[in-house]
Design a protein that fits this description.
Elements: E1 2-8, H1 28-44, E2 50-54, H2 57-66, E3 78-80, H3 82-85, H4 88-96, E4 104-109, H5 113-122, E5 134-139, E6 152-157
Parallel strand pairs: 1-4, 2-3, 2-4
Antiparallel strand pairs: 1-5, 5-6
Helix pairs in contact: 1-2
């Protein structure tokens, strides 16, 4: 059984209007939520095989703050503009290229793409996929055959619902 973890970047700051959307860092709340998520993830004792992260500053900062919880070294992540500019088909195509030895994959990115991806892969309607939310999706097949409506939504974790 494979696991696809989808993590939306944490809350970003709008304090500096001179920054582009791509350059916006995390807000204080985003930092708190990412740290809260990290603590929760540590208790799950996860082990990721691959990480794909948007190159946008807020996504990179979110991963930096949660990487320890995922038991993954920050410098081994693959950073890509495709998670900022791309769509669900780009992500599915990248997942299809994975080697079968990879069982646990994290994607750190943005809405609306991640929201749509959850619904597409799992055929599950979700109300909202807000900042720093984590979806855990299970897939029992070969990566090359990954397609819509073949996965199950195991969990949808929201920082505001965590007690730590």
């Amino acid at each position: 059984m494979k696991q696809i973890y989808l993590l939306r970047h944490a809350k970003s700051s709008w304090d500096n209007s001179n920054l582009t959307d791509f350059e916006r860092p995390l807000a204080d709340r985003g930092i708190r939520d990412a740290k809260k998520m990290c603590k929760f993830l540590k208790d799950m004792d996860l082990k990721l095989d691959r990480v794909f992260c948007s190159q946008a500053i807020r996504a990179k900062e979110t991963f930096d703050l949660t990487a320890d919880g995922f038991n993954f070294e920050i410098d081994k992540a693959t950073y890509t503009d495709a998670l900022y500019f791309g769509d669900t088909s780009n992500i599915i195509n990248d997942l299809r290229k994975l080697e079968e030895i990879f069982k646990n994959v994290l994607i750190v990115g943005h809405n609306p793409t991640l929201h749509y991806l959850i619904e597409l892969l799992t055929e599950t309607k979700i109300d909202r996929f807000t900042t720093c939310n984590l979806a855990i999706i299970s897939y029992d097949g070969e990566w090359i055959s990954l397609n819509s409506q073949q996965c199950g939504l195991k969990s949808l974790i929201k920082p505001k619902e965590l007690n730590n």
